Amino acid sequence: MKVLANAEGQDDFSGDTYKIKYTYYINGKKTTAQKYKAYVKKLKSGAIEGKLTFHKNTTVQRNKWIK
Known about the structure:
This protein is an alpha+beta fold. The protein contains two helices and three strands. Strands 1-2-3 form a three-stranded antiparallel β-sheet, covered by helices on one side. Strand 2 (17-26) and strand 3 form a beta hairpin. The longest helix has 13 residues, at 33-45. 0% of the residues are buried.
């Protein structure tokens, strides 16, 4: 598994205000928020859900599927 994009937040207390400053990364390189959001949107649009197949827990199935 590889991390393609991530965002890191850092707390910022300035007087009476509280903000979180975000730093955005694509493939480990710093980028802008706009490019980050567009990249994540593109990744989500091409996402494929995984399909799980369950098999009965019998000796024949264990010998067939577990190697």
